[in-house]
Amino acid sequence: MDIISGKKILLITSHKSVIVSGLEKKLMGLGFNVLTVGDSASDIESNKLGTDLFLYYLPTDIQDDSEIIRKYDFVNIIDKLKDKKLILIGEHRDRDLYLKIAPAIRDKVWIDRPIDFPVLENDIFTLLEEKHVVHIDRRILIVDDDPTYAKMVSSWIKDQYMVNVVTTGMHALKFLIKNKVDLILLDYEMPVVDGPQVLEMIRSDPELSDIPVVFLTGINSRESIERVLSLKPSGYILKNTTKEDLRKTLQDLFAKMS
Fold first, then answer.
1. How many whole angstroms separate alpha carbon 177 and alpha carbon 165?
2. Domain boundaries, the chain
3. Which candidate, 96, 139, 158, 183, has a CA 20 to 30 Å from the CA of 247?
C-alpha cells in the first residue's frame, strides 16, 4: 500500500523479548521500515530523525512503583515525543500510574497487552493516514451488520477519533473484553444478537457497564424511537443523519462526558 511506502517505525523497548521480536517481524511483514532501540531518551533522540511513527513497548516489571517508571527515563521519552505520532503498548492495570507520571500520554494511543494485532494495525494506519487527529484519546467502536454503512460512518469520523468496526454483537463483546473504548455506536437491528441484547450484556458486565452506548437506528417512527429510548442508551442517531450532524452529535456527547 502507498501509505506504508518508505514509512519508518521506531520500536522502543527496554528488553528485546520474543514478543517484541514477533511484533517487529509482523510490522516488517506489512512493509514498514522498523528500527528497534532501547528506551532511553538519548537512544530515541539519535534515531528519531525521519521516523513516521513511534511504538513504545512499555516495561512489564513496574510493580505499581512510580520510581521504577522514572528509572526507565519514561518522562523524558514522552517529553521528546509529545508532538509525535506515538502508540504505547502496556498492561491495562498500569495505564493510570503512567498517566500520573506523564499526563501527556492521555492524548496518545494506548494498546493493552496482550496485543490485539488487528487493532494495532488499524491504529497505525489511522495515524499515518491522518495529518491531524483531533481526539486521539477517544476511541469509538462501531457495531453494525452492514459493513458498507459502518465503513461510511468510520470514514466520516476517523479524522477526529480512533475508530474500530465490528459487524456482530458477539464480535463487539469479544473486542470490548480486550480493548478500552470511550463510546459505542450500536446498530439497533442486527440478526442473531440484536442491539438491545448487546446493550443488556454490556450493562451486566461491571468492566463494561459504564461505556456510553448510542444506538444507530434506521426506523424513524415514534414507536421505534420510544422503544430505543426505553433502554436508556446515551442517545440515538438515525441512520439517515448527515456527516455534519453525526460529528456534531458526537462532539456534544463527549463534551457532556468531560
1. 15
2. 2-129, 135-257
3. 96
**Superfamily designation of domain 2-129:** Response regulator (3.40.50.2300)
The pLDDT of residue 3 is: 58
Q: Fill in the amino acid letter for 188.
A: Y
CA 82-84-90 angle, 5° bins? 75
Q: CATH topology for 135-257?
A: Rossmann fold (3.40.50)
* CA-to-CA separations, 217 to 76, 84, 241, in angstroms, rounded: 47, 38, 10
The predicted-structure confidence for 111-144, as pLDDT tens digits, reads as follows 988 898 988 998 898 888 765 445 567 899 999 9
Share of the chain above pLDDT 90, in %: 41
Same fold, 2-129 and 135-257: yes
Q: How large is the greatest C-alpha to C-alpha distance in the chain, in angstroms?
A: 63
CA distance 99 to 106: 7
Sheet holding 135-143, edge to edge: 161-166, 135-143, 183-187, 213-217, 235-238
Per-residue pLDDT band at 52 (split at 50, 70, 90): very high
Cis peptide before 114 (omega within 30 of 0): yes
Average pLDDT over residues 211-239: 82
Least confident of 34-38, 93-97, 120-124: 93-97
